[in-house]
Amino acid sequence: MDxxxxxxxxxxxxxxxxxxxxxxxxxxxISFLESGRVFSSTDFADIANQNTIRTALRRLTLAKxxxxxxxxxxxxxxxxxEYPIGYQPKYESVANAIARRFSWKIxxxxxxTFAYFSLRKTGDxxxxxxxPNKKFEFDSFAFSGSLEFRHIPLKLSRxxxxxxxMYVQALVALxxxxxxxxxxxxxxxxxxxKTVIRKITYAPLRIQNVFLKELxxxxxxxxxxxxxxxxxxxxxxxxxxxxxxxLARIFxxxx
Length: 255
Description:
By secondary structure, the protein is mainly α. The protein is built from ten helices and six strands. A hairpin with a 2-residue loop joins strand 2 and strand 3. The longest helix has 30 residues, at 225-254. The chain is elongated, with a radius of gyration of 26 Å.
């Protein structure tokens, strides 16, 4: 009987120690997260199983060591002498935490893109995403507001990096012949333009064609034979698509 009691007591102590260890590991890991201190249980998958992590996060919330934002997101406040209550999390940090939780790939908002190119235009604060169209409402002391995600086609979500995506986003929003787009092209170096072209190989042909035309207008002789051939192939494919669309419109009118 005493043996059974001691075993039960040992198991209780063991479980308590595991919980404490998980909580300590979570607090240590928070400071190394990529996007600030906003996180969800999936960010700690290497520490323990999801049920254990969720329990540990609830315990840390009750202990007021972290704040619950809603939608299974949490936040570790940054406190200073000037602001002992703690700063609110950044808008982008919350968006990145949501993207990590659902394994989405997200890109800068149109507002961020305009700011990056120093354009005096207002854009929306909707995050282009590989996930579905979705809106998240937050109403907590730590963070209040809404975040919206808009699904983009696979061809755009496969663009290699966020900087290249911003050039494509600006082109789509402003138009090829706009003064703002001409200003953006005037600021970009030829080497950076080549880098953008390499990273948008999955983008629609009409978009690639605009950047290739800009590169060709700068220095046709500076392109390698393979680059010229690639540009010619894309241009021919683009023209063929345009021709097929025109024929399709004509046939629809005749039918």
